[in-house]
Amino acid sequence: MTTTKIEPDSLLHGLLNSDYDNGLLYHYDELLKAVADTITSMAPDKRSSFIDMLKNSVQRRIADNNRVIRDLQINVENEHIKEGFVSLNRVKLNNLQSVNEKSECLIRDLEGLRRVKAGKKNPLSAPVIALFCKLLHESGFKKRDTYNETITNYCIRICENYNLTYTDRVRQNFNPDDTPTPRNITKVKELIFPLIDEATKEAITEYLNSKQPPQQKLYA
After folding, report:
1. CB-neighbour burial class of residue 60 (10 A; exposed 0-12, middle 13-18, buried 19+)
2. Tens digit of pLDDT per residue, the chain (220 long)?
3. For the chain, how are helix, strand and coil distributed in percent, rounded to 5?
4. How far is the C-alpha of 217 from the C-alpha of 159, rounded, in Å?
5. Which is nearest to 27 in space by CA: 12, 16, 5?
6. 3-class secondary structure, 184
7. Numbers of helices and strands, H then E, in the chain
8. Which residues of 107-127 are buried (b: 16+ CB within 10 A; e: fewer)?
9. CA separation (Å) from 194 to 184, 189, 190?
10. Which one of 33, 43, 95, 155 has the minimum C-beta count within 10 Å?
C-alpha cells in the first residue's frame, strides 16, 4: 500500500500536528480548500485511503478531546470563581467543544469529497452552478439544512441530484449574501434549465418572479 506523505509546511499537516486546533478554528476554509485540491487531484484508487487516513486522525482527536472535556466539565461545575475573574477551565472547555464541532464538520466535508469526480471537464462555470444551488435553497424547493449541512455538502448534494459537476470553486462561489447578476441568471436558464426537470424550473422561475415588481416579470 502506498503511503501519502504530508509535507510539514502544508496546511494538511495541521490535521496531524499541534497546530490542529488553530488551523481548524481560524483557517477552516483554507484547510478545506487544501484538502479538496489534494483529493480531487488524486487517482480514484488512492483517494479513499487518503480520506480514511485524514478521517481517522480527526476522529482520534475528537476522542482525545472528549476525555479532556469530561474532566473540564467536572472542574467547571465544582469551581468557585470570584466576580470579575475568568475561569480558565471554562475557556479551555469552550475551545475544545468548538474544535470538536469543527472536527465533525470536517469529517462530513471529507465524506462529501469522497464523491467528487476528478478530472472531468465542466462545461458550466462554477459561479453559474453555485447560483443554481443558491436559487434552489432560497426558493425553498431544495433547502439547505443550515444547522447540519455545510455549504460543501449542500452543493455536492445538489450537483449529484442534477448530474452537475461539483468542484471546490462551486462552494467558494456560493455566497448567501451576494445578489445574483442578470447575466448569471440568464446563464442558469440557458445552460442548466435544459438539463433539469420542469418542477425545478418552475420553482426557480416563480421565486425569481416573486423578487420582481408585478409589471416586470423578467424571468418567465
Report:
1. exposed
2. 344 443 434 444 444 444 667 777 777 777 787 888 788 777 777 888 888 888 898 899 899 999 999 998 998 888 887 776 778 888 888 888 888 888 888 888 888 777 665 444 445 789 999 999 999 999 999 999 888 889 999 999 999 999 888 888 899 999 888 888 888 899 999 889 988 899 999 999 999 998 775 544 444 4
3. 65, 0, 35
4. 28
5. 12
6. helix
7. 9, 0
8. bebbebbbebeeeeebebebb
9. 15, 8, 7
10. 43
CA of 138: how far to CAs of 108, 119, 177, 207, in Å? 23, 30, 11, 8
Q: How far apart are CA 172 and CA 131, in angstroms?
A: 11
Q: How many residues does the chain have?
A: 220
What are the grid coordinates assigned to 11, written together?
496546511
